[in-house]
Structure formats: structure tokens, C-alpha cells
Amino acid sequence: MSSNDHSALDEAIAEVAQAESLMGGSSAVVATTGPRRSPLTTVAWILPGTIWLLLFLIAPLVMIILVSLWERTPVGFAAFSFSLDAYGRIFETSVFLDTLKNTIFRSLLVTALCILIGYPIAFYLARCVKTIKFQIALFIVVLAPFWVAYVVRIIAWLPVLGRQGVINYFLVEVLGVVDEPISALFYSTFAITLALVQLYVLFMVTPIFFQLATLDEAAIEAARDLGATPGKVFREVIFPLSLPGVLIGCIFVFVLVMGEFATVRIIGGGTIQSVGTLVNDYYTIPDLPAAAAAATMLVAVMTVGVAILLRFSKIREVV
Amino acid sequence: MTYIWYLIALVLLVIPFSAMVFLPINKSKPVLLGFFLIFIVFMYGPMMTMGVLSFQGPFGSMTLPAKDLGSLHWFTELRAESSLMVGVRDGITKSLWVSLVVAAITAVLSLSLGMAFRRQFRGGGILFYAILLSLMTPGLLLSLGLSFLLYYIGFNKGEGMLGYVPIIGVQAVWALPFGFLVMMSVFNRYDARAEEAARDLGASSFTTFREVTLPLIWTGVFGAGLFGFTLALNEFERTFLISGAINTLPLKLYIITSSSVLRPYVYSLGVVTIIISFLLIALFLIVSAITGRKKALAIEEDGSGVDDLPSMTAAAASGD
């Protein structure tokens, strides 16, 4: 990895921090406001958090990769008995590969839809709402659903997409465009896509909003004074400057939808699979190494996806 | 057939997007306002429908049209003595206790990490990445990996008080980046002169921390804890494979939706959790408003002008 890649990654992480500020409320990354202190004090401050992260974040992720390389036993796995059988089992039939392809496609689709929806929303909040008070209020309204239990938000789609749900009610009774309620609305890939977009679009709105709210007004004014059309101002000034926010949003949505499990299970009703539901299926068999192998493949795809996104952003910067 | 839906959705989305791209702001504003309102309906509509359906009479169904609206039947049903409802209430109690502990741990860890990052230190970059990594790790993977770890060390999931340890562990990891970023924003706009003064007057670093630093940043710590509480209360995927017999409320809800015949009590239960979440947000905003006013007064006296927009937005969100 070249030093350029590192700086791109650093930038991206800084942007994550900024993006998350809507959920976390921060505006910058590293503060150096503290008084001088002994190394021992530093260690004391970082120790609890570091141990916690090692135990409950790093160790589990390492375990997934390790278990995928270990042999299966009737109830679990035999530690340090290396073999690649688990990968053999998941690639034995085409089920896993097909599901992986579908999951990647679904994640890309959801990410694209989140940009199409999230960008105008962020743009409206950041550039069309004038008073700061009103802006904060609207922003909180937009953000509030993030705090509602994820399972509850999925369940809330039942009365909307069901056979006698709101959408069918409108189509049949109010508009009269179809005679029969569409039963395929629920338990369909479309329903899953819709619910996923609703669940994750806030991860796109937030970073873009922060990017747009802190744009350099002088650059926009200058472009306008030089006679650029609104379309040109957007394409050549506003959009390029907001790109880091879009990038962070894409990373969030893509990665989280790739690992998605409950939405697909509840709304798909067991007929539609994602890598997440497959992992869970392997886990319940139980075939823990196969579950680990599937999860490792998932991590690999996510890493590649994020790397491509970062690479893409680098190219954009050069152009 | 589904492709038609995608096509309709795409056409609908292209209109606001192209308005934003090609029209000057004064012309695109009405279009974007309309789109914003549709977006709000999209975000809140399902929850609203669920809310309406939870107020049905005893013969209420899971879908529209609602029957005998205006009844609290399905809310009183939550207090029934059936084994299902006992389980649900048990789930609520467990969730609240777990969330409380997670809140305390998130507050402490965020505070200590926030203090650590006030100065640069070796390995700080890696630690920063690790904190943010937990935001980007899908919940199911975390749950899966931790369950492997528990299996490896021979830990009995969900047994006794010890069974709560992994649950609290992953939920705190999930809440940590949020709490940490709250603390970062607090220290970012923090005036270290008071600390220096205390030190010059001969206070030890511990006394300075307890008597000066902590009183100045407690709202931030409180905010971090509240983040922990809300996120833990609603956490599902990270807890899914490691909980054993301990069913927190979101787990219980998942089990109900995937295994039994659904009745509108699912909706009333959903409404209860939404109300709890929104009350917590309100509490959060009230605390930030109070401290925000204090700060505004201080700035007025100071004569140092008004903060810029992002930090004000951040302040509104962080409770600083």
C-alpha cells in the first residue's frame, strides 16, 4: 500500500468521524487541548477502552477467520485443526455463490437508491432551509427514526406492504389501477429493497448533509459570478465538494446492507436469502466452520468494496 | 412485475434529483420541499400505520382497514397473564437493566477515551480506527464471532448473571463510537485554561480532573451514556447469537414475528418501544437545550460571538 492510499484512508476516516457527528455530535477528529501528562496516565486512560475493543470487537472478528479454517465437529469446531473443508462445503452447490451475487447486487441497488433519495434530502436541509433553528429541528425530525428499534421498524412494514396493506388499498380502492391486491408485494425482493432503503438512508443523508452544510460559499459565489449556469455550479462546484460525504455514506450503506440479516428474514419470509441468512442457517445446523467461511467471504467482499470506493474517490480527486 | 415497481420508483426519484441539479435554488426549492415531505411520509408512514392499528378493538387485524378504532385493548393485552406476555414483560425488564449497565459503561469508556485523545499518543491512530470499525461491522458478524469465542472458552450462553457479560460487552462496543464522538466534540470546544489555573494553584491531576474537568464536561458524559442506553435498548443483531436464554425485548419481538401467529399486540408493543425511544430523545434535547442556553449566556458575557453552524448542530445533537 502506497502512502497515497494511506492518506486517502485517513481522509475517509476523518470524514467518517465528521459524518457520524450527526449521530454522535462531533465536529473534528483529534483534539490537542489537554494538559501535559505522564505516559502512565495516558495508558490508564486508553486501557479500559482498548481492552473492551480487543475483547468484544477484534477477538470476535479474528475468531471468524480462524474458525472458518478449522474442522467441524457434531456440535461445533475442533480448535487448531486446520483444513479448508468449510470453504469446500459452502461452494459445493451454487447456492452460496448465487446468494452472494444477489446480496452484492441488492447492496449496490440499495446504495444507489440511498444516494438518489438521500442527496436531495441533505441538499434541501443544508441549502434550502435558511434559519439555523429550523434546520436543526428538521434535522432531528429526519434523524429520530434512527433511534427506533430496528426490529420494530421492520415490523412496521407489515401493514404497509401486506396483501391488505396500505399500498394495495390505494391501488385497488382509491386509484383502481389494479383489480386484485398484489400479493407479491410482501415477501418480494422489492419489499426488501424498499425496507432496506428506509432503514439505511439516514447513513447517507447524514454525511452528505454535513458536507453540504460546511461548503465554501465563496467558491459557489465565484462560479455564479463567472456566469456558470445552476447545472454547471452543481456539477463543477457543489457536487465535487460534497463527494467525501457521498463516499462515506456509500461505505456505510454498502457494508451494512451486505451484512443484513433480519430485514431479509422477516420481510422475505424465509423465501429470499442473503449471505446473512445463510450464515444464520449454517449456524443453526450447526455447521459453525461453514458459517464462519460464509462470514469470511462476506468480510472479503466488503473489504474489496470499500477499497474500490476509496480508489474511486482518489481518481475523482485527481480529475 | 417487480421491475415495474423499480421503474416507477426510479422515475419518481429522477424528478427531485434533476430539479436539484439543473434548477437555481429558488426554483428547485418547492420541488425539493415536496420531495422532503414525501420522504417524511416514507420514514414515518409505516410507524404511523402501525400506531393506528395498535388502537384497534379485540377483533382487530394485522392490516388495514382498522377495526373498532379507539380501543386500548391491545395495550391492556400486554398486561395479560399469558405465558407469552409474561415473557414479553420479562424481556422489557431485562432490556432496561442491560441498557442501564451499557449506558454506564459507555459513559465511562467514552470519557476515558475522550480524555486519552486530548493529546496525541503512540498507537492513537490505530485505536481511532478500531473505535470506528465497530460502526462498520455488521451486527451479525460481531455476534457470530463472539459466539465462537464463547464456545471456544466453554462459556454457557445466557446462564446466570454471567450470561449478561457478552450481551453487555457487544452492546457497549456498538455504542462506544457514538459516545466517543460526543466526548471528542466536547473536548474540541473545551477551554483548558480552568485546568491550568487549578494546576497552578497546586491541585494534583486527580483533584483537577474531579473538581474542574468533570463538572465542565458532565453533560457530554451524560450524552454518551444516553446514546449507550438508547442503542442498547434497541439492539438486536449483535445480541442475536450470544444471548442464550436471555431474551431482551428486540429478541423477543423477533422470535414472535418469526414463529407465532401475529396479533396486533405486536404493534402495541412496537408503539411502546417507539414512545420510550422518543422520550429518551426528548430528554437528550432538553438537557442540551439547558446547557446550550448556559453556554449562550456565557458567550454573550464573553462577547466572543456565535458559533458556526456545524458546531451548533453538533451541540444540539450531542447535549454539550
Q: How many distinct beta strands of chain A?
A: 2
Q: Which fold does the CATH topology of the largest domain in chain B refer to? A: MetI-like fold
Give the SSE string of chain B.
HHHHHHHHHHHH
The number of helical elements of chain A comes to 15
In total, how many domains does the architecture of chain B comprise?
Answer: 2
CATH topology of chain A: MetI-like fold
Helix content, binned percent of chain A: over 70%
Oligomeric state as shown: heterodimer
Percentage of residues in strands of chain A = under 5%
How many whole angstroms does the radius of gyration of chain A measure?
23 Å
**CATH fourth-tier homologous superfamily of the largest domain in chain B:** MetI-like
Shape of chain B: globular
Unreliable runs of chain A: 1-9, 19-29
Structural class of chain A: mainly alpha
Order of helices and strands of chain A: HHEEHHHHHHHHHHHHH
Question: Can you characterise this structure?
Answer:
The complex is a heterodimer of chains A (319) and B (320). Chain A is mainly α. Chain A has helices at 3-24, 39-68, 85-90, 95-128, 132-143, 150-155, 158-161, 166-175, 189-200, 202-213, 217-225, 230-258, 262-268, 275-284, 288-318, and strands spanning 70-72, 77-82. A two-stranded antiparallel ribbon of chain A has the order 1-2. Chain B folds into two domains: 2-75, no CATH class; 82-318, MetI-like fold. Chain B has helices at residues 2-22, 25-53, 73-76, 83-116, 124-136, 139-152, 164-188, 193-200, 205-234, 249-259, 265-302, 309-318. In chain B, helix 5 crosses helix 7 (164-188). The longest helix of chain B is centred in the C-terminal third of the chain and has 38 residues, at 265-302. Chain B is globular and about 75 Å long. Chains A and B meet through helix 1, helix 2, helix 4, helix 5 and helix 6 of A and helix 1, helix 2, helix 4, helix 5 and helix 6 of B.
